[in-house]
Design brief:
- With 300 residues, the chain is mainly alpha-helical.
- It folds into two domains: 159 residues, TIM Barrel (Alpha-Beta Barrel); 106 residues, no CATH class.
- The protein has 14 helices and seven strands.
- The protein has a three-stranded parallel sheet with strand order 1-2-3.
- The longest helix has 22 residues.
- It is globular and about 65 Å long.
Length: 300
C-alpha cells in the first residue's frame, strides 16, 4: 500500500474518468501517457468500466489504472481481474476495505467524518478519499480533520467550485506561471538555460502542450491554428506551441473565473480589422479586461 501511496503522491493528481463507451478507453490512455500523466481512476458508474480498465492496462501495462465508485466486493473482483491496481470507494464500506486489505489490494475509501477517519487509522490506512469535497466543507474541513489525524492524507474529489478554486490565481498570468508556461525575463533573453520545474510544470504543462499540438492540427479552431502559424514563422515550432498552450490555459482561466463560454472571436487576429467586423459591448469589455485594463463607469 505504501508504494501505491507514494506513486499517487508523486503524480499529485489522479484524473477521475467516466467512460460510456469502451472505444474511448485507448484514446484516453494514449492522451494521458503522452501528456506525462499515466494515471487514471475509471469509475464503475457505467457498464463500460470493466472492459475499459482491461483495454487501458493491456495497452499500457505500466500505467497506474484504478477503479473508482466501487460499491461491492464483486466489483472489486471484476476491477482487479480487469487489471485495476487500486480501488476507490465513495464511502467507508467496512466489507470492501477489509476485503481489499486481506487480499493486499490498495484501497482508498471515502472518509468525511472523524469516525470514518478513525476507522481508516485503525486499519493502518494512510490515504483516504474526501468525497464529495465541496459539500462537506472542502479545504477547511480537510485541515480540521488532518489536525488530529496526522498520519492521514486526503484525496479530495467532487464539487469543484471554479469561483473558489480560482481565487488562488489573481490573474491568468499567475496561473500560466504556476503551470510552467511563462518564462522569466532571463529565460526569454537566453541568459538562463535551466530552472527548477514545479509539480504543475511536470504534469499540467505536458498535458497542455499535448492539447496545443492537437488543436493546431484541427480545422475546428482556425483562430488558434492561424495564430500558431504566425508564431511559428517568427519563433519556431516549440516556442509557438508553448504560446498556444499558454493561450489555451488563459482562455480556460477566464471561462472558469468569469463563467464565460469560449468565444473564438476574441482570439482572431488580422493585419487590419475588417470594416464590417463587429463585436458586442460585452465582448469589447472582456477583451479590455483580458488586456489588463480596469473597467469603470463613464460617469465615474
Amino acid at each position: 500500500m505504501s508504494t501505491m501511496n507514494e506513486k499517487i503522491a508523486a503524480f499529485g493528481v489522479v484524473p477521475v474518468v467516466v467512460l460510456e463507451d469502451v472505444k474511448d478507453a485507448k484514446p484516453l490512455a494514449d492522451a494521458l501517457v503522452k501528456g506525462g500523466l499515466p494515471c487514471a481512476e475509471v469509475t464503475f458508474r457505467t457498464d463500460a468500466a470493466e472492459e475499459s480498465i482491461r483495454i487501458m492496462t493491456r495497452e499500457y501495462p505500466d500505467m497506474l489504472v484504478g477503479a473508482g465508485t466501487v460499491l461491492t466486493v464483486e466489483q472489486v473482483d471484476k476491477a482487479v481481474n480487469a487489471g485495476a491496481k487500486f480501488i476507490v470507494s465513495p464511502g467507508f464500506d467496512e466489507e470492501i476495505v477489509d476485503y481489499c486489505m486481506e487480499n493486499e489490494i490498495p484501497v482508498f475509501p471515502g472518509c468525511v467524518t472523524p469516525s470514518e477517519v478513525a476507522q481508516a487509522v485503525k486499519r493502518g490506512l494512510h490515504v483516504v478519499k474526501f468525497f464529495p469535497a465541496e459539500q462537506f466543507g472542502g479545504v477547511n474541513t480537510i485541515k480540521a480533520l488532518a489536525a488530529p489525524y496526522t498520519t492521514i492524507k486526503f484525496m479530495p474529489t467532487g464539487g469543484v467550485n471554479a469561483s473558489t478554486d480560482m481565487e488562488a490565481f489573481p490573474s491568468a498570468k499567475h496561473l500560466c506561471s504556476w503551470a510552467g508556461l511563462t518564462p522569466t525575463n532571463n529565460e526569454s533573453a537566453g541568459k538562463k538555460k535551466s530552472v527548477r520545474v514545479s509539480r504543475a510544470g511536470c504534469y499540467i504543462k505536458p498535458l497542455l502542450v499535448q492539447c496545443a499540438n492537437a488543436v493546431v492540427k484541427s480545422n475546428k479552431h482556425p483562430e488558434i491554428r492561424n495564430r500558431y502559424l504566425r508564431l511559428k514563422k517568427r519563433r519556431g515550432h516549440r516556442k509557438a506551441i508553448i504560446a498556444i498552450a499558454r493561450m489555451l490555459l488563459t482562455a480556460l482561466y477566464h471561462m472558469l473565473k468569469n463563467g464565460e463560454n469560449y468565444n473564438a472571436e476574441l482570439y482572431r487576429k488580422s493585419g487590419l480589422p475588417s470594416a464590417d467586423r463587429e463585436i458586442t459591448v460585452e465582448q469589447a469589455i472582456i477583451i479590455a479586461r483580458n488586456q489588463g485594463y480596469k473597467i469603470k463607469s463613464a460617469t465615474a
